[in-house]
Amino acid sequence: MGLLREGWRRLRSTLQRQELEDGLQDEIRFHVESQADKNRRAGMPPDEARRQALLRFGGVEQVRERTRDEFRATGLEDLARDVRFGWRALQRAPTFLAVAVITLALGIGATTAMFSVVYGILIRPLPYPDQDRLVEIVHQGANGGQLLASPAAYFGYRDHNRTFDAIGHWDWDSSPVTVSGDGEPESVTSLEMTHEVLQILGATPVAGRTFTAADDRTGAAPTVVISHGYWQRRFGATPAVGQTLMVEGVAREIIGVLPSSFRFFDYDADVFYPLQHVRADARFPSGDGRAIARLKKGVTLEAANADVARMLPLLIREFNPGFQGPLPRIRPALRTLKDKVVGDLGQTLWILMGTMSLLLLMACANVANLMLVRTQSRRSELAVRSALGAGRAAIARVVLAEAAVVGLIGGLGGVALAYAGLPYLLSLGVDDLPQIMTVRIDPVVLLVAAGTAVGATLIAAGVPLAQLSATGTPHSEALRGTRSVSDGPGGLCTRQILVVAQVATALVLLVGSGLMIRTFLELHRVVPGFRNPDAVQTFLLTIPRTGPLGGDENAANRERLLNTQRALLDRLAAIGGVTSAGFASGNDGLPLDGDGRQVSLIPYVDGVPAADGLSRTWEIQNASPGLFETMQTRIVAGRGLTWDDVVTQRQVMLVSEGLARKEWGSPAAALGRRISAFPANPGSEIIGVVEDVHHDGLDQPAPALIVNPPRSVPTAAFVVRSVRAGHADFLVDLRRAIASVHGDLSIAQPRTLGAMYRQSMGRASMTLLLLGITGALALILGLIGVYGVVSYSVSRRRREIGIRLALGARRGEVSQMFVRHALVLVGVGVVIGLGAAAGLTRLIASQLFGITPLDLPTHLAVALGLVVAASLASYVSAQRGSAVDPIEVLKGD
Q1: CA distances from 416 to 420, 560, 669 (A)
Q2: Are 538 and 718 in contact (CB under 8 A)?
Q3: Which pLDDT tens digit goes with each residue over 426-464?
Q4: Could you tell me if residue 853 is inside a domain?
Q5: What residue stretches are annotated with the MacB-like periplasmic core domain (predicted)?
Q6: Does pLDDT of 553 surpass 70?
Q7: Three-state SS letters, 725-785
């Protein structure tokens, strides 16, 4: 504590310098005047009394200096003086200053922007209480496919678990619903959930309440909770609790308004209403939905997985009455809420963060090389300082001060670049980045940027200081003149090492960029299962319910729903320029959405269980006639669905080509088979086989798919083929046609299938672009390093060049001498870089598609290209440097 107080006292005195000087002057005057008064009282004349007082006090200036040294932080003053001197010196070398600052700003800016994304998505805590205890309940099928949590899982785990404090269930995805009433019908995003979900996430309403168990009961009064944004947008922030909202034709009482800070993961939902499950209808593992649970205190994720594994056999038998035969091979795969939110994006972001860090190191190496050259060129000046009594610390401060100026300006420039570049960086993957609202440049990011700038300053100053410390300052040689000053082998070796390191790093980053380019090309070669997607308009429509959809007593309601959807198709197909139209039931039936419904079962084929006894995880789609025709998805065997199949409720289905080949060897062999989940159920007949469609992304295998006739659900994803798809006037025609069938419908999420195709490649595109930019910058920095070392070598050997030219050497031969030396350095860097790339590119294996990290053509092409580029850079530098007049050089010597 004593040292801290002393340090603070000295710092304060340094900052309050004028006050210290005034106080010191008053103190000296007081002592001198007091002694002079004593002398006068002793009988001395006034002038003599003052003179004797000054003699007795001692030298005033000496006392003033001793007092300053005692009270001030002289080291800081000296450093500040050196920084001012360094700034003036750098102003006399504008080219050096500009190159060093721009280089450092690029490295710091790229690293800061990328770190802000990593911090906001991966590091920053989620805005939910007890986030470390929150988990999502997920299962994994026998083939590795992910199974969501069905209503049966919610009931069973709620009743039988030993590790959860609470468990909640919500509909597997957000759905558009139509809110009608005053004015035009409005399409908003909704979520259905049990009462526990908002409680687990700690959502405290700003008005009213959230759901209770009473709201979950079948037949309970319809209620709704609205988001803060929707409350402001629709009600103008006026009291809304107790009012009625018409949602899908159902009058729902608004019981609560959520706070503005609450966000339900990455769902941009406006309205939330209770999910009223019917336990008697629940089956396991069939069904849709997601489940979240809060672990009891002290319970680990491993213990929770073990508890779920214990309950799985109980649920299979409890929710499948009369079930016989082997149990489906399902295992729990619970994951933390952070993993649920981030998904597999974490590895991609850390890889990009690593590449930006390598770029920063290259920038630091480049600036260190520049500082080393500048320090070597100032050896005469430093020798003069040393000869006049400056110690090693004083000389080190000179170098450190210049590096600090470069680091400060480069750091500020880097932060400015990060502020400017972050919005663009986020726009590259806006549809694929979770928690994107939390990504910003905040004090934590600025602190990291400041630390990065300090680190870069120390690296830039440390290299020349280490060189000076190793070689010393040869006074006699340096003071004779700059022409005779030798760098020594150490300085040359240091610069060569830095160039080799830059070349090796550039090669690693360029190989990564090359691999991503190859991946992008391979993805474009994948046949997605549809054609000409930019001519396909997609959108969601939700038809308001007039009653429940389940049970035989509601057959009329189901028929009304399907008739409305069919009438919509007929009206859409009649629009000018439209060639076909179709829909998929629900909002999960379109390609590349990655949201397909899955079922895990041991299938019965023609009443006989699968011979291997293993459960299958298949994706289910409910499609109308015309869907595959509109997407131009081929029927490879049999026929497609017809409206006669739908109207007569025939038990028929289509299967994907991959499923047919895996189960029966060929598409034709699948036709006529009947598939069911239970032996007592006759199942559905396979009437056709469709080509594989990549529902989960182009980089994922096409799922095994079962296509059933359309379901009686209010929401459907419509597809319309027209050359006008994506145009605003076409959307106007679509809305007009829809309104002619049903006046309370509103289009949601309009986009072309081509836009969905490009979005599915968004992460690969983002990774490719960022790695490409990083690789290009690394190449530029590497070439600058090669150019600089050749240029400096030429400048230091001008006398030798003049002698060689005077003795008859050709300029080309002189240039080749320097180019050969540069190529040796580049060759060493390439060899080291290839070895490093062979190891480091394995880290991006999960980002690649169709190639391996050790793709030989990519590695060799990058290495060859780098050698050629470096050869050109060194040749240009050598040609410029060797263009000297030997007479002038020898005359100047």
Answers
A1: 6, 59, 64
A2: yes
A3: 777 555 667 777 788 999 999 999 999 999 999 888 888
A4: no
A5: 98-309
A6: no
A7: CCCHHHHHHHHHHHHHHCCCCCCEEEEEHHHHHHHHCHHHHHHHHHHHHHHHHHHHHHHHH
Which runs of consecutive H residues, i.e. helices, occur in 797-845? 798-806, 811-840
176 and 305, same domain (yes or no)? yes
Q: Cα dihedral angle (62, 64, 66, 67), rounded to 10 degrees?
A: 160
In a domain? residue 791:
no
Domains contained in the chain, number = 4
- Tell me whether residue 839 is exposed, middle or buried, using C-beta atoms within 10 angstroms of its C-beta: 0 to 12, 13 to 18, 19 or more: exposed
How many other C-beta atoms lie within 10 A of the C-beta of residue 448?
16
Q: How confident is the model at residue 291 (pLDDT cuts 50, 70, 90)?
A: very high
Same domain as 348, residue 335: no
* Cα–Cα distance, 663 to 783 (Å, whole number): 57
**How confident is the model over 61-101, as pLDDT tens digits?**
666 666 655 555 455 566 677 777 778 878 888 888 888 89
Query: How many residues belong to the chain?
Result: 893
Residues 444 and 450: their CA atoms lie apart, in Å, by: 10
Above 90 in pLDDT, residue 162? Answer: yes
Measure the CA angle with vertex 694, ends 600 and 337; round to 5°: 60
Q: Do 89 and 125 sit in the same domain of this protein?
A: yes
| Span of 110-119, 359-368, 490-499, 692-701 with lowest mean pLDDT | 490-499
Which residues are bridge partners to 652 per DSSP?
A: 685
Q: Which of 811, 799, 784, 803 is nearest to 878 (CA)?
A: 811
Question: Containing domain of residue 199, as a range?
Answer: 131-342
Number of Cβ within 10 Å of residue 571's Cβ equals 19
End residue of a domain, out of 469, 486, 503: 486
pLDDT band with cut points at 50, 70 and 90 for residue 313: confident
Could you tell me if residue 250 is inside a domain?
Answer: yes
C-alpha pair distances (Å), 786 with each of 378, 500, 571, 707, 824: 22, 9, 68, 61, 11
Q: Do 443 and 573 fall within a single domain?
A: no
Determine, yes or no, domain membership for 660.
yes
Respond yes or no on whether the N-terminal peptide bond of residue 853 is cis (omega within 30° of 0): no
